[in-house]
Amino acid sequence: MQQVQQPKQARQEKAPINWTNMILFTVTPALAITLVPAYGWINGYDAYEWTVFVILMGFCGMSITAGYHRLWSHKTYQAHPAIRFIFALGGACALQNDVLNWASDHRRHHQFVDDNDNDPYSAGRGFWFSHIGWILRNYESAKNDFSNVKDLQRDPIVMWQSRHYLALVLLMNIGLPALLGYLHGDIIAGLLLGGLLRLVLSQHFTYFINSLAHIWGKRPYSDNSTARDNTLLALITYGEGYHNYHHTFQWDYRNGIRWWHFDPTKWLINTLSRLGLASGLKRCDPDKIERAKLDRQYQLATARCKKLAVTDDWHERLEQEYQSILQTVQLWAEHRQAWYEAKGKEWQERLSLLERQQLRAHYLEVKYKLKLQKKRWQTVLRMLTTPQPALA
Ligand SMILES: [Zn+2]
Ligand SMILES: [Zn+2]
């Protein structure tokens, strides 16, 4: 078989190896898959040791998702210094670099998403690169540039973590698991489960968001990037699997917007806010979300029409339904706003009970109208997605 020659230029593009990361990301998984089962085979692990593992997994994971990601990178809410301090410790435990580096890379990821020259972990360069390859070599696209995190340099906790990062990493990855193991009479089990296995798994679970969440799943809100919504990934990433929504509305503190979406990070932030430890939680207006979804469905349906070469009548029907549902969404947004304002203290005094009841009735009326219209819209879309002779 003839060997395909790799272009000379592509071979020369290999960036220099980052030996610290290369050794760390090769040795720790190798030790985890050998030492952890071997020690378990000889000595076994008990419920206490597994509990420490689960708690530290959650602590590291959520410090990254609620702290590094939604708080520091995107500023979707504000947090009490005590919470920021805990997230800074958890982030060092997760060993994913300090807040400054992480947030700077991540802000560039959003700004230049899928741009192979400027997105530090561009999915366009393949699964391996976006998952971990970008960390193993000193690529130009991931070079340090803190010009986009000047706001974070004013946060004393961020700067304190940056100054003492190595000491905190050792304390959280060796000191803490060893102490928890010592308290239970088995330092090695504590280090293997709470230290090693937890470190490797928590790192790769986070990295799946940069790799798999840009490859596998649906794009219900926008096709401006490769980011995808994937419920299965949400299960192991503390809710970060709704990545298409996140890339479309990155200022929202939620990634899973429905109450039943599995997003423990959103629940944590919400609980912190109820306890007075977080404030200013940002949410995207529901009508904007609705419009983004409708635009995307319309875009897909139009492409489908072209592919099936349907008649002009169907094109027109699709267009009419689309314009009509957009108008209802607009109406719904206005009535919703009016009713929410009427519920507020200021308007409660100015409006009579009857007037407020009228506003509520109008809002519920439009809400119901939108519900019916959505059903009709879905029917039209279904008819377009299942090829039928009647359409042609
Ligand atoms: Zn993000
Ligand atoms: Zn992304």
Secondary structure topology:
Blueprint: H1 8-12, H2 19-42, H3 47-73, E1 78-79, H4 81-94, H5 99-111, H6 127-136, H7 156-163, H8 165-183, H9 187-210, H10 231-236, H11 243-248, H12 264-274, E2 278-279, H13 286-308, H14 312-343, H15 345-350, H16 353-385
Antiparallel strand pairs: 1-2
Helix pairs in contact: 2-9, 3-4, 3-5, 3-9, 4-8, 8-9, 13-14, 14-16
The structure holds zinc ion (2 copies).
One zinc ion binds at residues 69, 73-74, 106, 110, 246, 250.
Task: Characterise this structure.
With 392 residues, the chain is mainly alpha-helical. It has two domains: 8-221 and 228-279, no CATH class; 286-391. The protein has helices at residues 8-12, 19-42, 47-73, 81-94, 99-111, 127-136, 156-163, 165-183, 187-210, 231-236, 243-248, 264-274, 286-308, 312-343, 345-350, 353-385, and strands at 78-79, 278-279. It starts with 7 loop residues before the first helix and ends in a 7-residue tail after the last helix. Bound molecules: zinc ion (2 copies).
Order of helices and strands: HHHEHHHHHHHHHEHHHH
Q: Give the strand line-up of the largest sheet.
A: 1-2
Structure ligands: zinc ion
Distance between the termini: 47 Å
* Total strand segments: 2
Helix content: 55-70%
What ranges have pLDDT less than 50 throughout 5 or more consecutive residues? 1-12
Query: Could you tell me the radius of gyration in angstroms?
Result: 25 Å
Q: What characteristic shape results from the CA principal axes?
A: globular
Structural class: mainly alpha
Number of helices: 16
- Major sheet summary line: 2 strands, antiparallel
